[in-house]
Amino acid sequence: MISKKGKTMLALLLLVTLKIVLSFGYHHHGPQDANVRLLKTLHSYMDTSSDPCQNFYQYACGNWENAHPNITSKYVDTFGSLDYIINKRIKFILQGRRRRKISRNFENNEIYRKVRSYLAVCEEQKKFEPEQYLTVFKPLPGVEWPENGEEWQYPLEQWNVWSTLGRLQAMGFNGFPLSLELKHENATHFRLELDKVNLLGFTAFEQKIVDHLEGSLNWNYRQLAMEMEEFLKTLAALRKNHNNFKEEKISLAELMQRVPSVDFEEFFENLLGLQREFFENIQMVVTNLAYFQELGELLRQTPGQTLIQMLRIKFLGYMEKQMPKVENHLHCLQHMRDLVPLALDYIYEEEVYRHQRNHSDGVIKRIFHRMQGKFLEILQQHQQEFSEPEIALLEEKISRMKLNIGNLPQVEDGNFYVHYFRHWYVTDNDFYWNHLNALQHHHQQRFKLLQLKTAQPQHTFVIWPYGSPAFQPSANMVVIPHAYLRFPIFHPDFHDLFLYAELGNTLGHEIMHAFDINGLDFDGQGNPTTLISSTLPNKKAFFKSLRCFSQQRSASLNEKIADISGFNLAYATYFDQHPPGEVFQFHPHSPLGAKQLFFIKFAQFFCAINPKRITYDESHDTPLYRVPQVVANHRDFEKVFHCPATKKNRIVLEKCNLW
């Protein structure tokens, strides 16, 4: 039985939800238009010549690319379309202000002015050249970089390489010759994590510069190239010798005492802009501490000319990756979304979403609360395996879970934005200066989180440049970006079946990240806990489910849990409240049942051009695998689509589900 506390939580959640609309009839024009339009769009993506029992992804999405002709310069999948559409809308907004004679010089809103100026200067730049960044960013204040292969004129005996490394790190340059990350300590505090080099070797762009030196007739150039190659080999050997993954939690001040061979004071003063007296308050987790003692000695023994040329090449390689990708449509806005996503979200909120927030938010919260309630019911089925304190933690976690629609800081007025962007400077004529300043501002704001000691607005949103939703475990918060809230993904007037099949599935996916292998390490407030994770090996049914998942191909076990259990949660929440006999029709096509439409609408979020032509990172499987795995693990799929048991090429799997 559900605990008394759980019953109270469930009752409160049910009270805040609205009555579900069961019929497809509406009393006014708007909702019917939205659903008819969606049905037309949904059918246009389908390849009805394919057998859903053999290849459900092809059946649901096989015509998606034909329905989006000439898109490869804009986006290649539904995820990309979210970013493209919102960037296009923001550009339209900014152009509209220009047409209304609101010039950059007379824009009263500073955030609008900075965004418009940055965008205009970026779009005026027809070609982007990494070497131009060297004219703006210097290795030391007022000191020029050497030319490629040439001798540096700065007195090497006066050069502290750690000053330059700190300046580079402040621009986001990371991984060479050390790796520094900002991570959550708990729900309100942050810490630094320091580890050894992770960027060995040269990128293709960097290698071209080295090849130029190696192929030169100038002996000094060839000698320099050999010295850099030798330095990398020595650094690689050093990295290999320190691979014990031992972590130590110390203050920055203690790190400076224990590793005197590295001038961490100079490094962090240039990075954080803080004086030594503040270092005692900065907590760090250092992995492979002995590596840094030897690293300091290695840099001391390496010729300064070799080091400055190496850093020059590495900096150019870093900036080449950061430049706008001109082959992408709206490349400047996409570039800005990586740097100042909050500024773009602020403008979209002011110009678009705030006018529909009440209506849309009410619908989204209703679905979210229903799914929270359903998950509380599901927890009843696990009471024999989890102790009372563990069940209480799980119930608190789902009940306290927050929802940030729009991914904006939860503040009452706009002063937060003014203060946040106060030191983001933009010129009207120099893209490279603007880009470097935006990079510095972006990373400066991140490192400022080290100084937060209590709950602040910075804890209520995440720096997230993507259109797809996310879960932030340290805040126990689901984030729904503005970009997601667009047709055909979402419309507040969609029928509940479509809302649960898409929005509900997405919410379910993110909710399940709170209860996957990593998510169980956090409590309802976002603080670390070992209450459940320390006893997982003793939970036989739980581990049986994990073994079931692990036997199926996947890039990430946690993503597979979120995909399959999240869909099951959305499906159960909807159909436990609605009669399954509802029938929807594509006129003049054959009618499809409600459950068939539910599966199809879910799958179409993953539609893309031929997935074999897309490279995805290792954190997620391609749509070609994600969709079939979800439907193959659902108990109703074969019955809903009338799949005979002898059908060839079917993915026959043991049905896996964690929750």
What does this structure look like?
- This protein is mostly helical and about 650 residues long.
- It is built from 25 helices and nine strands.
- It has helices at about 5-15, 30-45, 55-60, 65, 80-100, 110-125, 160-170, 205-215, 220-240, 250-260, 265-270, 290-300, 305-320, 330-340, 340-350, 355-380, 390-400, 415-420, 430-450, 495-515, 540-550, 555-575, 595-605, 625-630, 635-640, and strands at about 180-185, 190-195, 245-250, 285, 400-405, 470, 475-480, 585, 590-595.
- The protein has a four-stranded mixed sheet with strand order 1-2-4-3.
- The chain starts with a helix and ends in a 19-residue tail after the last helix.
- Residues about 10-30 have low confidence and may be disordered.
Blueprint (SSEs and pairs):
Blueprint: H1 4-15, H2 29-45, H3 56-61, H4 64-67, H5 78-99, H6 110-124, H7 161-170, E1 178-184, E2 190-196, H8 204-214, H9 219-241, E3 247-251, H10 252-258, H11 264-272, E4 283-287, H12 289-301, H13 304-322, H14 331-339, H15 341-351, H16 357-379, H17 388-400, E5 402-405, H18 415-420, H19 431-448, E6 470-472, E7 477-480, H20 496-513, H21 540-550, H22 557-575, E8 583-584, E9 592-593, H23 594-604, H24 623-632, H25 637-640
Parallel strand pairs: 2-4, 5-7
Antiparallel strand pairs: 1-2, 3-4, 6-7, 8-9
GO biological process, one term: protein processing
Keywords: Coiled coil, Hydrolase, Metal-binding, Metalloprotease, Protease, Signal, Zinc
GO cellular component, one term: plasma membrane
